[in-house]
Amino acid sequence: MITGFVALYIFMLAAFTGYEIIGRVPAILHTPLMSGSNFVHGIVLVGAMVALGHAEGFWEVLIGFIGVILAAGNAVGGYVVTERMLEMFKSSKD
Q1: Domain that holds residue 59
Q2: How confident is the model at residue 29 (pLDDT cuts 50, 70, 90)?
Q3: Res. 62: pLDDT tops 70
Q4: 74 backbone dihedrals φ, ψ, rounded to 5°
């Protein structure tokens, strides 16, 4: 079982690593990276649904439901933003 300090250490290490990796991505790769992050948001949504499926008490169900709603909004919003970004690169043929 992971204790609080170990979980905090893992979270801080992941946040620092993510910041360093994303900070070094060139602008030309931003749109493909967004598509990849949308895939990760889909995995987060599946994880939230699994956690909601195992919830037993009222507060667990409520927090799980809020997690599913936020994860779904994040995934859908990511795809909308990616689509808008890709529209900017299409040439306009009159």
Answers
A1: 27-89
A2: low
A3: yes
A4: -65, -45
DSSP 42: H
Q: What is the DSSP letter of 92?
A: P
- Using CA atoms, how far residue 48 sits from 37, 60, 69, 91, in Å, is 16, 11, 9, 39
Q: How far apart, in Å, do the first and last CA atoms of the chain sit?
A: 62
Residue 46 lies in a domain: yes
Q: What is each CA distance from 64 to 4, 7, 27, 89, in whole angstroms? A: 20, 20, 35, 38
Q: Say whether 94 sits in a helix, a strand or coil.
A: coil
Identify whether 6 is part of a domain: no
Is 13 contained in some domain?
no
Q: Cβ(69)–Cβ(36) under 8 Å? A: no
- Is 77 part of a structural domain of the chain? yes
